[in-house]
């Protein structure tokens, strides 16, 4: 079997390995809403292919096991061991945390080489979290998992982060403060993600999606309430211009993770929703001509029925910039705005930032 090549676009990209064909949560904003499609895509990747991907990409520093709930894969612990044997410095998983509520499993994962866990926590209590995950008992297990992991982190190099998708149900002052009180003793970082308009996130866009300026104001007020505290909080997946002057520290805003992953080749690996340059969209009741970000499709052929996908190219295929963006201080490092978001909210909130006032010179990591 031929091994997939390392593409030298940027070895600082984190390697994502899709191993979660199933998920035991049912999040209302999940981008992977096609469960059968996810099963077909992920289960079609064999252990031999996973090992080949890890070995071929071992020059990269970081690997994350992702998609669905990776810990439900019966090969998960073996994959972690393979990643350690391949020499990855950072070996992580994006998880709902529930399986880590079983202490023996958490211990085995860390013993195998897992040293980064990102746990999805979408509210400070069962009512909020279980409502958004549509899974009774999910909050209790996730918190138990965090506590088990936190105990392990006190005696191993394990790092624990959380990921929270901000939306109209959980971005209230009381819930944000309660979430901080719950998580700060247990984790290294709390990352707030802005909801993305795909899958169920698109289905429930009208009821859940907050305009970026509202998200910015909510987090700015959050930092103001905790002035003087060293908060382990970061806001990502949001254009820099919408958080400029909001009160959110520069070090806590704007970073978007860059990654590459391999997946099973399928017939729909074309333009992925890319809008041709100059094609108008409806924005605030009027037509606006957008600048397409790239002619790339986001797909590069790979051997043995796999394709290589880079987040940079995938997102460029579904994002655009307005005519004023070119004069913004952040234009060079800004990824643009989701086309569906623009069609719904328009371009009014995206005000170019003058170079003299820009607080960020490069994305923080």
Descriptive overview:
The protein has helices at residues 35-43, 47-56, 76-86, 103-112, 126-133, 138-153, 173-183, 200-203, 205-208, 212-225, 240-243, 311-316, 339-345; strands at residues 14-18, 62-66, 90-95, 116-120, 159-166, 189-194, 233-236, 259-264, 280-283, 286-289, 291-292, 299-301, 306-310, 319-321, 337-338. With 365 residues, the chain is α/β, with parallel strands linked by helices. It has a domain at 14-261: TIM Barrel (Alpha-Beta Barrel). The strands form three sheets. It has a ten-stranded mixed beta sheet. Strands 11-14-15 form a three-stranded antiparallel beta sheet. Helix 4 (103-112) links the parallel strand 3 and strand 4 (116-120). Helix 2 runs parallel beside helix 3 (76-86) and helix 4 (103-112) crosses helix 6 (138-153). It is globular. Residues 1-9 and 267-301 have low confidence and may be disordered.
Summarize, please:
By secondary structure, the chain is of the alpha/beta class.
Label the CATH architecture of the domain at 14-261: Alpha-Beta Barrel
The string of secondary-structure elements, in order, is EHHEHEHEHHEHEHHHEHEEEEEEHEEH
Distance N to C terminus: 35 Å
Low-confidence stretches: 1-9, 267-301
Overall mean pLDDT stands at 84
